[in-house]
């Protein structure tokens, strides 16, 4: 029996994983120094701002889609149990694989810490922290969402949602204005998406009709972020009002579209977990091999580091090949 897929949610997941790959692989990267032409500096700055304002919508959007799907299921305890077991299996498998991979590459055993328990550490050479903090946070958010769903009073849900959203936004803005930042893996970055997902799932018409205003807010707060960056302010990765507005805007606009079935979108969505989980290992291995090389395209005119797009394309290709091979084995449950 063919399972009916929601093409809108497939599109959102596809967009999210593309943003993840762009953020991690940075296919457009310039060499910038004191002698770089001002036009190149401006272009490099625009590219970086787009990465920070667009690509970083990926993880919040993944959370928003996941929590939306959870709420439309009208979850009971049995569904919660099934969901948590699945997430725990994914988290455990990839955490074990991550540590085995790291030991194989570095021959080092990391010191035990809370960051290892939550899936943030250990870090990969040239690829940074582990991405599996996402699965740990999703388990916690799922439990909180279930408790939220058990509230029977509409008035209390409205009050709690209002307080959660306003407090989160004020918290994000206060931290930013104070020239500080919220660690990107902290759960406090993502609690705000619980009431947002709940209201989209239960009152979609009322939420979706204001999408233009979310877009305006996203643009204005993005300009606010850029202004602060120009003056050297520290900024949170995910704990910014612009990121919340951006994720909500993208969700609402895509969700109102009539999207025909598309094989590429469907596969990106179906194997978004595999792409998310595997790409950093190939990134780490390949950059270990080429760490001493820098290749510029027409260095006297365009100081563009072509090593990044070349490596990025190879990382994506090898990740896709890995998924293709794994999907024919018993490990397919861990990639999609």
Detailed description of the structure:
This protein is an all-alpha fold and 336 residues long. The protein has one domain. The chain has helices spanning 7-25, 38-53, 58-72, 77-106, 114-117, 133-149, 154-177, 193-202, 204-208, 211-230, 241-255, 263-270, 272-289, 307-326; strands at 296-297, 304-305. Strands 1-2 form a two-stranded antiparallel ribbon. A hairpin with a 6-residue loop joins strand 1 and strand 2. Helix 1 (7-25) packs antiparallel against helix 11, helix 4 runs antiparallel to helix 6 and helix 13 (272-289) crosses helix 14. It is found in: Cell membrane. The chain crosses the membrane at residues 12-32, 52-72, 84-105, 131-149, 156-172, 184-200, 212-231, 237-256, 268-290, 302-326. This is Acyltransferase 3 domain-containing protein.
User: Which segments are poorly predicted (pLDDT under 50) over 5 or more consecutive residues?
Assistant: none
What's the helix count? 14
Q: Tell me the span between the first and last alpha carbons.
A: 18 Å
Cα-based radius of gyration, to the nearest Å: 21 Å
Beta-strand percent range: under 5%
Shape: globular
Total count of domains: 1
Strand order of the largest sheet: 1-2
How does the helix and strand content classify structurally?
A: mainly alpha
Oligomer: single chain
| Biggest sheet descriptor | 2 strands, antiparallel
**Number of β-strand runs:** 2
Write out key terms for the chains shown.
336 residues; mainly alpha; two-stranded antiparallel sheet; globular
How would you summarize this macromolecular structure in one to three sentences?
The protein has 336 residues and is mainly alpha-helical.
